[in-house]
Design goal:
The protein has 123 residues and is an all-beta fold. The protein contains no helices and eleven strands.
């Protein structure tokens, strides 16, 4: 069982930045991904960092604005979000799993999830 604790969400204006954190022991053994879910929508892939690797993957909508990174000493994965837009408004979840590369963007491939953190971007 992996218990994920997320933090860092909030209410910001368009163009601002936020950094989300996802903390749990043993994260380096898993692929860690961030997904987001707006009301009435599916849980959509945002970014992922593969286990025991520095390889990162991003949704096209956030590429160049968001950065996923890992601090193994702190058992934490971060999502740095810059140039935020109102369309980025959602609950953000971190998930861990061991998906194959072709399935990296599928929420069903992740075993454990955090509680979610709300990000609201006003125009």
């Amino acid at each position: 069982q992996v218990q994920l604790v997320e933090s860092g969400g909030g209410l910001v204006q368009a163009g601002d930045s936020l950094r989300l954190s996802c903390t749990a022991s043993g994260l380096s053994d898993y692929t860690v991904a961030w997904f987001r879910q707006a009301p009435g929508e599916d849980r959509d892939f945002v970014a992922a960092l593969r286990q025991r690797s520095t390889n990162t993957y991003y949704a096209d909508s956030v590429k160049g604005r968001f950065t996923i990174s890992r601090d193994n000493a702190k058992n934490t994965v971060y999502l740095q979000m810059n140039s935020l837009k109102p369309d980025d408004t959602a609950v953000y979840y971190c998930g861990v799993g061991r998906p194959i590369l072709s399935a990296l963007r599928q929420a069903s491939m992740y075993y454990y999830w955090g509680q979610g953190t709300q990000v609201t971007v006003s125009s």
